[in-house]
Amino acid sequence: MSRLQQVTVLGATGSVGLSTLDVIARHPDRYQVFALTGFTRLSELLALCVRHAPRFAVVPEAAARGLQDDLRAAGLSTQVLVGEEGLCQVSSDAEVDTVVAAIVGAAGLRPTLAAVDAGKKILLANKEALVMSGALFMQAVRKSGAVLLPLDSEHNAIFQCMPGDYARGLSQVGVRRILLTASGGPFRQTPLAELEHVSPDQACAHPNWSMGRKISVDSASMMNKGLELIEACWLFDARPDQVEVVIHPQSVIHSLVDYVDGSVLAQLGNPDMRTPIANALAWPERIDSGVAPLDLFAVARLDFEAPDEQRFPCLRLARQAAEAGNSAPAMLNAANEVAVAAFLERRIRFPQIASIIEDVLALEPVVAVNELGAVFEADTKARALAEQWLSRNAR
Ligand code: NDP
Ligand code: MG
Q1: Which pairs from 16-21 meet CB under 8 Å and 24+ separation?
Q2: Distance (Å, rounded) from C-alpha 390 to C-alpha 5?
Q3: What is the mean pLDDT of residues 197-217?
Q4: Other Cβ atoms within 10 Å of 138 Cβ, number
Q5: pLDDT at residue 60 is higher than 80
Q6: Does the pLDDT at position 77 exceed 60?
Q7: Percent helix, strand and coil across the chain, each rounded to 5?
Q8: Distance (Å, rounded) from C-alpha 287 to C-alpha 292?
Q9: Whose CA is nearest to atom 31 of ligand 1?
Q10: pLDDT tens column, 11-58
Q11: Which residues have C-beta atoms less than 6 Å from ligand 1?
């Protein structure tokens, strides 16, 4: 390779961010860290800067002075930028080749879109950004010529199982449907009555994956799969009825593509995000990710079952939002973010996450979203309604 690829990692201090930096560190001949961003874990960010010596670090304004002093004391010339403006700057800088979008939630939307508008190669983990603004996001990708590669393990698996020219349309390339696998999370078999009493730590104890707390709760409620259904529709230009959710508790098959001739292609691997990250970083080449080879004899069996929407109402709500389109997914996402934060703060019980989202979606009519302002308006409205719900009903 002629030149080191310059990589910005948005959300470097998080689970996906750290896995990305682990893969990057294995290939100093290919990648150089251009910028790292953090939000609350500032000592971790400092340590990452010492390890990777990025040109820029981005933090909230209140943390900037302290970090800049610490960086200087460590002998680094890393420059600290602040806030959303700083995030957008390191996403769109002319010297950047690749942007890893790994901020959690709606906070990642503008910086990710800045990378899209600048025509970068974008490795997308921040599914909430695409869920919120789907049509506008994909239009912006087409307009700028950005290369959008999915990091979400299921979507990366689907991407690997699709033919190279899938953008022509699923029916054109003989794809009948996408089979989106889900582990079912920690509460797949918990008696329904006990869900009233589960704690944040129980919800975050995912059986197969180690992840940030928000996505862990989403996995426990299966809202994560709902968001992924919407994500898959946008990434692969599929209708919601072309995406079927399949519970596969071992998380060895990361998703499948079903073709009209009866062939079903699957991507398998150990549940470790470094595989999809390495796949997307080096695409279309393949590089070592540090992930151990899959031991099929140790796996021994692969199980499948249909999802239970009574146990997981969030999946039904997400499918309805996918079908309604327009502002519905942005409202679903915003109500979910508020509800999950309230659950993690022990202000509500686990089943109330779905109740909040259902009530918010019932209260607010779905409107067209033709520009980004309308997306943020829907987001703000849903957050306000969810907060009102909390002040009325929270324990
Ligand atoms: P984490 O909570 O571990 O990390 C989130 C990152 O975002 C951290 O760097 C955090 O900074 C930063 N951040 C949080 N809030 C803000 C904000 N308001 N402004 C700027 N930065 C912010 O999450 P994950 O790494 O688990 O997930 C990140 C994204 O990737 C999510 O969208 C998730 O759905 C998706 N994803 C994650 C997978 C996983 O295996 N973890 C798998 C597939 C998708 P700090 O820590 O310093 O506060
Ligand atoms: Mg996933």
Answers
A1: 16/100, 16/102, 16/125, 16/151, 16/212, 16/273, 16/277, 17/100, 17/102, 19/272, 19/273, 19/274, 19/277, 20/100, 20/102, 20/123, 20/277, 20/281, 21/48, 21/51, 21/52
A2: 46
A3: 95
A4: 16
A5: yes
A6: yes
A7: 50, 15, 35
A8: 13
A9: 104
A10: 999 999 999 999 999 999 999 999 999 999 999 999 999 999 999 999
A11: 11-17, 38-41, 102-104, 107, 125-128, 152, 209, 211-212, 214-215, 273
Q: How far is the CA of 99 from the centre of ligand 1 (A)?
A: 14
pTM for the full predicted model: 0.98
List 224's β-bridge partners, or say none: none
Q: Which amino acid is at 185?
A: G
Which SS3 state, helix, strand or coil, does residue 365 take?
Answer: coil
Residue from 103, 219, 272, 273 whose mutation best tests the ligand 1 pocket (most atoms within 8 A of CB)? 103
Residue to substitute in 61, 87, 104 for testing ligand 1 pocket (most ligand atoms within 8 angstroms of CB): 104
* 258-301 tens-digit pLDDT: 999 999 999 999 999 999 999 999 999 999 999 999 999 999 99
Helix (H, G, I), strand (E, B) or coil at 294: coil
Letter string b/e over residues 96-107, b meaning 16 or more CB atoms within 10 A of that residue's CB = bbbbbbbbbbbb
